[in-house]
Automatic annotation (TrEMBL):
Top-level taxonomic group: Bacteria
InterPro entries: 6-blade_b-propeller_TolB-like, AB_hydrolase_fold, Peptidase_S9_cat, Xaa-Pro_dipeptidyl-ppase/CocE
GO molecular function, one term: serine-type peptidase activity
Stretch forming the signal peptide: none
GO biological process: proteolysis
Any Pfam family hit: Peptidase_S9
Name this polypeptide is given: Prolyl oligopeptidase family serine peptidase
Species per Swiss-Prot/TrEMBL record: Duganella flavida
Domain (Peptidase S9 prolyl oligopeptidase catalytic) ranges: 433-638
Length: 642
């Protein structure tokens, strides 16, 4: 018989934890950009972020039974198109093409050989590559910047010659005239090109157009034909089936569902109408949520009430069959004839690269974002909750405090951190995240909110934020915190709100215009909406016309809603974190807020990080920010260490 060891008694928020900030930084390896290739299509490629190498992205390949690194330092496989990037490489058999973050050039690399530069250094950036084998060229989205750093770049779809000698690296524009392009996709027979475009002031999740054109004999394109989309219809992920039928995702029904262009190219048809999302917003290039096992079978993932499902779809009948798997978030999916590869995770499963063989049971794990998992007794498993919020229903994941070695004094209630996700057009998921567990293992509750405007719940829910950014998102965070306190799950006197980027505006507005939260943390958050318009990059330069107001009415609404104009109403302690190289939300946004709070004598801390942009990648800075934030809360709320 084993003797029972009494748990340590310690106040909520001051529990000793084995999940240190260093463990968070060392353990979280971002996995992204899944591709298939190799001589027979059996190789799996992906990008892994290296926090210990200043956040460098390296390309890995699973070949046979081994995993190898293809791009050693200093190569950083990362695109800068739209600032958010994505779609930084493509695979054609044994050959990889990628863009290097430092010089924005495209490189060609054959397995086992050193990368060879293809394009010349200049002011152009590339993303979202597609191979045009018949003409030995690479097709890509190109973003061309001029000498004036304040002028907006020009976006096109171009072809990059892969020929020898002087012909190598020649860039030829194929499509131009729109403000933005994405997803150039060459048909399997090499005869046609499909792509997406959109124009200011739309964002791609508001309105995009799907185009199709045939290649002329000289490699140019015939007159494009509009297939679907427009100002009020969002199209995502055009893909060709093996038998040359163009498929795509559209939200014309109010939900991102799958469609295809009929063989006569005169009409489109829905494949499986349902109230679920078969796509996510186009913040980055190269996203994939479905693929073809054959011409008559699609493997897809869709989001149902914020949770991902995996399924087999038979386009001929519209029959959808679920595929059993342990995951609740499937971020990316690629399909070969014999297997599925996906980046996926769940409440007790970190983001991992998984392979499912069609002829075998079970899941083969090829890579994990967290190698050193905390003990199960120290993991907080979230509950999906819904609650009323100003006449609508809001959604969130609630993580209770959990630490197998510690318990709080009887009758006490925990401080709760409410998180508003970034975007704001995005969503939060319940995949195991050490940053969240860092807080819950110390006795904090966490409420991760999918406020009105989040994706994963249909277009109507997504459009709740139209003209209401800084209102609906804030109300849903405030009402979520209130709901927890009313249910006895939170200490109403120790409610905290934190957020990054757009979530930083939610944080600042909640603390400025409401009295529920007692402290907050802003990670590169927006405080001045007008300044954001003036400083923002091209991709988001008109975003506020949707989120706040058309330009004709913008100034008055900006003044009313920007926290920087109402610092007299802000009396809660805050800590700010800001990358000094941030081009999305420039440092002056945080600096102005800090200065205003200091002037009024409000407790405030400011952490500036050199060499960091919009999001922190370096291990030492992940450690520094987490420890500083924890110390700030413990000092503000006088949480005594055990």
């Amino acid at each position: 018989m084993t003797s029972h060891v009494p748990a340590t008694i310690a106040p909520f928020g001051a529990w000793p934890s084995t999940i240190s900030a260093a463990r968070v930084a060392a353990g979280a390896t971002p996995l992204s950009s899944l591709m298939l290739g190799g001589a027979d299509g059996s190789d799996i490629f992906w990008l892994a972020g290296r926090a210990a190498e200043a956040g460098r992205n390296t390309l890995l390949r699973f070949h046979g039974v081994n995993t190898g690194e293809l791009t050693p330092a200093p190569f950083n496989v990362r695109s800068r198109v739209h600032e958010y990037g994505g779609g930084a490489y493509a695979v054609d058999g044994e050959t990889v093409y990628f863009t290097h973050f430092k010089d924005n050039c495209v490189y060609q690399m054959i397995a086992g050989e050193a990368p060879v530069q293809v394009t010349q250094a200049g002011k152009q950036r590339f993303a979202d590559f597609a191979m045009n084998r018949d003409r030995q060229r690479l097709i890509a989205v190109r973003e061309l910047h001029g000498d004036d750093e304040h002028a907006q770049p020009t976006n096109t779809i171009c072809a990059i010659s892969l020929g020898a000698g002087a012909a190598a690296g020649v860039e030829t524009v194929l499509v131009q005239g729109a403000d933005f392009y994405s997803s150039p996709r060459v048909s399997p027979d090499g005869r046609s090109l499909a792509w997406l475009s959109w124009d200011h002031p739309s964002m791609p999740w508001q309105g995009t157009t799907l185009w199709l054109a045939d290649f002329n004999d000289d490699g140019t394109l015939s007159t494009p034909k509009r297939i679907a989309g427009g100002a009020e219809e969002s199209i995502c992920q055009p893909e060709w089936s093996p038998d040359n039928l163009l498929h795509f995702v559209s939200d014309r029904s109010g939900w991102w569902n799958l469609y295809r262009l009929c063989r006569d190219r005169q009409r489109t048809e829905g494949l499986c109408p349902m109230e679920a999302e078969f796509a996510t917003p186009h913040w980055t290039f190269g996203n994939s949520m479905y693929g073809f096992r054959s011409a008559s079978e699609i493997i897809c993932t869709y989001i149902d009430k914020g949770v991902s499902r995996l399924a087999r779809l038979l386009p001929g009948s519209g029959k959808l069959e679920c595929i059993a798997n342990p995951y609740e978030e499937i971020r990316e999916l690629r399909v070969a004839s014999g297997y599925i590869a996906m980046l996926a995770g769940g409440p007790t499963i970190p983001m991992e690269l998984a392979r499912i063989d069609f002829t075998e049971e079970g899941v083969e794990i090829l890579a994990q974002s967290i190698e050193d998992l905390p003990e199960e007794a120290n993991l907080s498993v979230p509950t999906s909750i819904s609650y009323p919020s100003n006449g609508r229903t809001a959604h969130a994941f609630y993580y209770p405090p959990r630490n197998g070695d510690v318990q709080a004094p009887e009758g006490s209630k925990p401080p709760v951190i409410v998180i508003g996700h970034g975007g704001p057009t995005g969503m939060t998921v319940n995949t195991l995240n050490l940053k969240t567990q860092y807080w819950t293992s110390r006795g904090f509750g966490v409420l991760d909110v999918n406020y009105g405007g989040s994706t994963g719940f249909g277009r109507a829910y997504r459009d709740l934020l139209k003209g209401q950014w800084g209102i609906v998102d804030v109300e849903d965070c405030v009402n979520g915190a209130t709901a927890l306190a009313e249910r006895g799950l939170a200490d109403a006197d120790r409610l905290i709100i934190r957020g990054s980027s757009a979530g930083g505006l939610t944080t600042l507005c909640a603390l400025t215009f409401h009295n529920v939260f007692k402290a907050g943390a802003s990670y590169y958050g927006v405080s001045d909406l007008k300044g954001l318009d003036q400083d923002s990059h091209k991709f988001e330069s008109h975003y506020n016309e949707y989120l706040i107001a058309p330009k004709a009415q913008a100034d008055a609404v900006y003044a009313q809603r920007s926290p920087i104009n109402h610092t007299d109403k802000l009396s809660r302690p805050m800590i700010f974190f800001q990358g000094l190289d941030d081009k999305v939300v420039p440092p002056q946004q945080s600096q102005m807020m800090v200065d205003a709070l200091k002037k009024r004598g409000i407790p405030v801390e400011y952490v500036e990080l050199e060499g960091e942009g919009h999001g922190f990648r370096k291990a030492e800075n992940i450690i520094r920010t987490l420890e500083a934030e924890l110390n700030f809360y413990q000092n503000i709320f006088k949480l005594n260490h055990a």
